[in-house]
Amino acid sequence: MPVTAAPTTPVPTFASLFQAITDNVARVVRGKHAEIELAVVCLLAEGHLLIEDVPGVGKTSLAKALATSLECTWKRVQFTPDLLPTDLIGVSIWQRSTETFDFRPGPLFANIVLADEINRASPKTQSALLEAMEERQISVEGRSHPLSPPFMVIATQNPVEQEGTYRLPESQLDRFLLRLSLGYPGREAELSILDTQSTNDSMAALRPVVTVTEVLAMIDAVRGVHLADPLKGYLVDLADASRRHPGITLGMSPRATLQLARATRAQAATRGRNYATPDDVKSVAHAVLCHRLVLRSEAAARGLTPERAVTEVLASVPISIGS
């Protein structure tokens, strides 16, 4: 009797997993394909995401849809003026039975942390995120608690001119790999929103499409993307050009250069390549750099914006052959 081989389950590829995540998020966030892709790029580059825009354009929906698409732990924290650092980190509670303190972890110990309206909390509470975002650990009472990978903070904020907000300091802005602005949807997208989300069924029906193991495998693949020496030189030249730009008082830091390299690797991987090109750098440069640059007041008064400054920096640096 002939023996037939058991059917094998095909192994998901990087491209298929990336497509699954973006398609899943797009079921909730309509007409924002480029922004959704950049949000996933941020995850795969092991960075943190800041979404800034006016209320009501889908910032929280994008954050929740991305977190829900991953089969991992996630917590949402609504930032308010009375939120305390211990509300994020956790507290130690005295146990009379054992006469010891028992540490109760806070929401920062989840894989994905949704910090909703982060700039409504006080600077003291905002600073509680710094160690977790940079070092992937939390120190409590002299003990360091490592955070399980993947770890990502997705923060939303309203523009600083909105009443009741606190401006994020440069040190914390620099911890965010990307900053996105969603803007208003187009006509067709808004009609689709009316058809599909008037009863909030889209978010409730969303289910995870990738596991933690698959996300970690994708992150490992991104780490393996090759940056040629000429391309590394191009990144350093961009940093130098930003520091010499006459309209910029605070240019790219070494951390910004490293973050741009990580985002470039992730962008190349999502395009199906194991090597990066200058086009990958340019496609993520504005999202990586605009929130890091500080403009001179006189340049800003003349109409210079961070977006235009990044464009000028990119145009000022020639691309060497072989990059």
TrEMBL record:
Instruction: Write down the InterPro entries for this protein, in alphabetical order.
Output: ATPase_AAA-3 (IPR011703), CbbQ/NirQ/NorQ/GpvN (IPR050764), ChlI/MoxR_AAA_lid (IPR041628), P-loop_NTPase (IPR027417)
Q: Does the keyword Secreted apply?
A: no
Keywords on record: ATP-binding, Nucleotide-binding
Domain ATPase AAA-3, residue spans? 48-178
Q: Which Pfam families does the record match to this protein? A: AAA_3, AAA_lid_2
All copies of domain ChlI/MoxR AAA lid, residue ranges = 241-312
Task: Extract the GO molecular function terms from the UniProt entry.
Answer: ATP binding; ATP hydrolysis activity
**This protein's record includes keyword Transcription:** no
Could you identify this protein by its name? Unannotated protein
